Each structure stands twice: as structure tokens, then as C-alpha cells.
Amino acid sequence: MDNNKEKQIQISVIVPVYNAENFINRCIDSILKNTFNNFELLIIDDGSSDKSLEKIKLIRDERIRYFSQQNHGVAYTRNRGIKEAKGKFVVFIDSDDYVKPDYLEKLLEGIGDSDIGISGIVFLDSEENIVNIRNSKNTEWNRFNLPLSGGKIYNRKFLISNHILFSDFIIGEDLIFSSTCYSKTNRVSNILYMGYNYVENFQSSTHKNYRDLNVISIVSELKRLLEQNSSLKKEFIIFFLRKTLIDLTFYTYDNNREKSLIILNEGYSLIKGKVVLFNKNETIKMNIFVNLTSIMVKLKLGFIPLYLMRKLRGRS
Questions:
Q1: For residue 17, what are the β-bridge partners?
Q2: At 153, phi and psi to the nearest 5?
Q3: Read out DSSP for 26-55?
Q4: In whole angstroms, what is the distance from residue 196 CA to residue 219 CA?
Q5: What CATH topology corresponds to 2-203?
Q6: 98-157 tens-digit pLDDT
């Protein structure tokens, strides 16, 4: 009887947990309150030193499977989730995020026969104020606009058969994972729905490790992966790589102008090719920054857009 039940599981929800005692209950409650019931919830504690594991063990639901391990990082933990999962589809939810009650239902409806389904994301600050909204749009650019693992549903067989796992790039693991997926398939569904709430928790280990990031390695790997799929528009790839380079450089080296300029110069030397002056699928602000930075780097004035980004984002 248990075997029959296992075969019927449609979605495996994977939640890595590390020192999340302040928000893990909110995350798990939002998942368990989903209107779609045919799922399993894999909660994997990655060696938390706070009371996360204690709180997790107090939650009783037959759909939950608990795992505890020494600290290995989010990439290793998600990969363990993929290997342990029994569902036809896989969904990743971070422990400080939460979802709407119809989230799983909408994602399952939206993916259909595709390998990947992409929905929109609402970005919140630590006080749950909306700071940004990324709608899912029915365009090719959608996969570049939403490179996070949150808000997506994956066909598990597709991941397993293509040996797709998360790489341990600290911050860039979502970017690398998504790009690896897109290098292997064009069967991508754009789900016109937003049910994933991404909470920007700047005290998390993820944010603390930004300065350890090797930006050039990530951009180089993204370029290699995306160029494997010849059907992806080259100008989209270039725009995405330049956008990613600017963002990662800003967050990683925003207090070190000299290092920022070195990274920008190296990155732009790597990302060669013509790009459309205006990407109609992106915001006007991002179009301005991508093009302004391109010009300034060529003029050896790359510090100007970095300075403007600090001012616009409230950094000194």
C-alpha cells in the first residue's frame, strides 16, 4: 500500500533549512495549507546551530519527510532533496520564503508536458513590504528575467536524466542551475501567476557570503552553458550576462572601487558581441544601466554606473 502511495506523489517540495528558527514555521505552514494535497515535503536541516531542528520536529504531518545532516551548504542540500524525492515534479522553497495556498496547484497546471515551469515572484523586505515584483511573461526573455530556483517547477525525470544538480557557487548556484536547465531543453512553460514570496533576509548566510563570490567564474560558466542551446537568441544571452555581471559586481565589491573596476573590465572582455540597445522585455532602468555601463567601461569610467547604483539602492 505504501508503494502505491509513493507512486502517486505528484510534487516533491524541497526545503533546505539552516539557522531559520525565526521563519521556518511560516514557510512550512504556507506549504501545508496548499489546496493541492498530493505532495511530499522534504525538510532537510543543514546542520543548524539554532533551534530550527527543534521547531521542525514539532510539526506533525504525514506528508513531511525529515532529514538532518552536517552543514554542507544549500547546493548540497538541494541536491540531496532531488535524490531523495519521489514526486514526478520538484519544487524548491527557501526556508525564509513562503507561498500562496494555490501555489502548487497553479504550478502543476502550468507546467503541463514541459520540463520546466516558470511563475512570477514577489520580493519582500524583512518586514514583508513589497520591494519588487517580477511577473512571469509569455516571452523567451522570461527565463532570463527569473533565474532563481524559487517560483519554478521541474520535471524530476528531466533533472535526473540530464544529471542536473546545483553547483557550489555560494550565491550563483541558482543562476548556474537555471542556465544548465535551459541548455538542455526548450520545453519551458511560462506560468502567468505569482505565488512565491521571496523574503530578502540580509542576515542569512547567503547574503553574508556575497564577498566570497568569484564573479568571473560564474559569468564564464553561464556563458558556456547558455551558448550550448543554439535556439536561444544571442542578444538575449549577452544582455543577461551583462546584467548579471553588473549586479554581482555591485553586491560583491560595492566597497572596493578598484576591485569593482577590475571585475567589470574582465567581465566585459569575456562577454563579446552586439546587443540590442533596448530590450523591450526589460525595465527602462535596467536598459539604461546595462548600456551606460557598457559605454563607461569602454571609456574606462566604469566607476560611474557603480556609484549611481549605490545611490539608487541606498548605499553610501
A1: 45
A2: -130, 135
A3: HHHHHHHT-S---EEEEEEEE--SSSHHHH
A4: 26
A5: Spore Coat Polysaccharide Biosynthesis Protein SpsA; Chain A (3.90.550)
A6: 999 999 999 999 999 999 999 999 999 888 899 989 999 998 889 998 889 999 999 999
* Domains of the chain by residue range: 2-203, 213-312
CA separation, residue 226 to residues 37, 62, 122, 216, 258 (Å)? 36, 40, 26, 15, 29
Q: Which residue type, as a one-letter code, is found at position 199?
A: V
- Residues 36 and 39: their CA atoms lie apart, in Å, by 8
Q: pTM here? A: 0.85
Please, are residues 130 and 51 in contact by the beta-carbon 8 Å criterion?
A: no
- Quick one: DSSP state of residue 232? S
**C-alpha grid cell for residue 115?**
520540463
Question: What residues contact 165, with CB distance under 8 A and at least 6 apart?
Answer: 75, 79, 82, 159, 177
What whole-number distance in Å separates Cα of residue 141 and Cα of residue 150? 17
Question: How far apart are alpha carbons 81 and 234 in whole angstroms?
Answer: 33
Give dist(CA 304, CA 316) in Å, integer: 14
CA-CA distance, 223 to 176, in Å (whole number)? 10
Under a CB-based contact definition with an 8 Å cutoff, are residues 52 and 129 in contact? no
Separation in Å, CA 133 to CA 139, 158, 198, 251, 273: 17, 29, 10, 20, 30
Beta-carbon count within 10 A of 300 CB: 9
d(CA 309, CA 31): 36
R_g of the chain, CA atoms, integer Å = 20
Q: Residue 92 forms beta bridges with which residues?
A: 14
